[in-house]
## 1
Amino acid sequence: MSSKPSLATVNKPIQFIDLAAQQALIRDKIDAAITRVLNHGNYIMGKEVAEFEKGLSAFCGAKHSISCANGTDALGLVLMAKDVKPGDAIFVPSFTFAATAEVVAWVGAHPVFIDVLPDTFNMDPESLKQGIEAAIAKGLKPTGIVPVDLFGQPADYDAIEAIAAQHDMWVMCDSAQGFGGTYKGRKVGTIGLVTATSFFPAKPLGCYGDGGAVFTNDDELANILESLRVHGKGTEKYDNVRIGMNGRLDTIQAAILIEKLAIFGQEIEDRNRVASRYNAGLADCLTTPVVMEGCTSVWAQYTLTAQSAEQRASIMSKLKERGIPTNIYYPKPLHQQTAYKSYLTATGGALPVCEEMAQKVFSLPMHPYLDDASVDMVIEAVKASV
Ligand SMILES: *Cc1c(COP(=O)(O)O)cnc(C)c1O
C-alpha cells in the first residue's frame, strides 16, 4: 500500500481534526493489532508496550522512552522522580493547557507563570528571567523549567537552557503537542533533561484512549520513572522502594500506537503541506503563525491571530455559517483561571502577551488528510470573512 493518504474530496464537510480519515487508511492494521492483544491476553505490560517504546526511541533518538497512562501523568511522574516539593518554584508558560501547571500543584510545589512571545506563542526567555527573580524574592527555590511546545513548535530551548544552567535548574519539555518536531537539528525527545508527551486522540500522534510517554537520555532518571509508573517497584515485586502510582500505558493502546507511529512521518509531512498552503494563502490578510529559523512544527494546531476579539468573533461566526469549524486555544491563560489565580506570575501581576493572545487567537482545521482543494476552500472562506 502507498504511504500517501487517500485524500478527502472537497464535497465532504471539513473536519477540524479528521480521525476517521486516518482510521480508514489503517483500519485493517488496527483491527489486526487489537486482535493480537485479545488473543495473547496480556492487557497490562504486554509485549506491544516495550515494542512501542523501542519504536518511539528509534523515531526520536531518545535513549529511553517510558510509556505511561497519559500526558498529565508523564509530566507528574517526572516531578515525582525529581523529588519536587513544597518551596520549589517550577516555571511554566501561562498560555497552555492546564495540565502543565496542575502537576506542579500536585506535588505541593509552586507554579510560576511566565509570559509568551507573540509570534511563536511559546515561553518568553526575558519573562522567564523576570519570573526567576520574582520567585527568589518570594523565598521560593528555582528548581525546574517546563517550557511548552505549543501548537507543535518547540520552544526557544537555546535561550531557556542557558537560563536554566545559570540557576542550576533542569528543563522538562512539555511536548504533549510537539512530538515529531525539531529544534535546530535536535529532535523533540532529546532536548532538555527530559520530555513529556501525550497520545490523547487529538494530539498529532494519538491513540484511541489515553496514553503518554516520557523521553530521556539519563539512565538513572529512566530507572526511577519505570519504578514510579508501577507503584515505586524495586527489584522484588512486593518490596516497593518509593511511593509511586499506577501510570502504565495499556497494551491495546500500545498496539494501536505501533500502527499509527508507522505512518506518523508521512502525516507530519502532510501537516506541513497544509500549514505551508495556509501560510501562503493567508499571510496578507491575518497574522499567520511563525516557525523559528531552523525549527520544524508538527502543527498540532494552525493558529491565526486576529486584530481584536471582535474581529475574531466575527470571522469565526462567518466561517461557521460556511460550515468551517474553528476553535480557540486558549480563551483564558492559566494565571487568570480560578484554581491558579493565587500563584505567582513573572510580573507579579498581568502577563500582557498571554492575555492578548487569549483574546485574539483562533485555530483552523488542521490534519494530514486535508487535501489542497479543501485547504483552498478554507483560505477563501477566511479571506471572505475578514
Ligand atoms: C494535552 C496536553 C497535556 C496533557 O495530556 P493528557 O494526555 O491529556 O493528560 C499536557 N500539556 C499540554 C500542553 C497538552 O496539550
## 2
Amino acid sequence: MNSNVKIVPEYILRRRTILSFLLFFFCIAIALFSWNRLQHQPKVDNALAPLRKGLEVNEWLFSHMFSDGNLSRIYAKKFAAARVRVNGDLGLKNNSDTANWKLQLIKSNGDTLKIGLEEIKALPKTTITFDFKCIEGWNQITNWGGVRFSDFINKYALTAQSQMKYVGMVTPDGAYYVGVDMASMMHPQTILAYEMNGATLPLNQGYPLRLIIPVKYGVKHLKRIGNIFFANNKPRDYWHEIGYDYYCGM
Ligand SMILES: Nc1nc2c(c(=O)[nH]1)N[C@H]1C(S)=C(S)[C@@H](COP(=O)(O)O)O[C@H]1N2
Ligand SMILES: [Mo]
C-alpha cells in the first residue's frame, strides 16, 4: 500500500459532513436574512437605498477617474459592423417627427435656437469607429460621423451654457430623455451624429441626429434629438428613473 495515502477515520469524515451541512444552512440563513432586510429598505430614485448607495459610490469613482485626455479606444473603419444592431425604439414611433425637424437648443435663460440639419452638416465633421457597449451585455464596433459637441458649442457661441453642470436631451415626442454631465459632453469623442457607416442615419438609429458618446454606455446615446438644454441640476433621465445608474460611465 502507498504510505502517502492517509486513511481518515470514519468518525472524522462524519464530523466533516455534519459541519459542512451546518455551514451550508448557516449561509442560506444569512442570505435569506439579508434579502429580507434589503426588501424593507426605502427606495431612492426607484432603487433600494443600499443598492442606490452602491451606484453612487460607482459614480464617484468613475467621475474622479475621468479626464478628457482619457480617450476611448478607436478602431480602423474596416472593423465596423456593416449591419448595426438596433436596440430601443422609445421616442422613435412617429417618423413624421422628422419631416420639419429642427434641433431646438434651449438656453438656460429660456431663449431657443432652432438649427436645421444642413446647418449642422456645414460644421466641421468628425468620424469615429469605437466599441459601442450596451448595459444589456452586448457590444459592437460601429462607425459614426457628425460634429463634435464641443465644436458645436464653440460655433454657436454657447460657452456660458457649457459652464453649467449637465446637458439634457429629449426626443421630439418626449418619450425618451437623458441627462449627461458636461465633462462627458465636452469630451473630444462626443459627437452629434448624422451619419452611420458613411451614410445618412437610418430612421431607427436616430435620423436625423443622435448622440454618440463613447465614454458612456448605450443608454445615453439618445437617438433622434429633439431638444437640448443646459442645467445645473440633473436633467430627467429615462433609465435612471427606473432605477439605473445616472452616470453610466465606461
Ligand atoms: N430615442 C431612443 N434612443 C435610444 C434608445 C431608445 O430606446 N430610444 N435606447 C438606447 C439604448 S439602451 C441603446 S443600447 C442604444 C442603441 O443604439 P442602436 O439602436 O443604434 O444600436 O440607443 C440608445 N438610445
Ligand atoms: Mo442599451
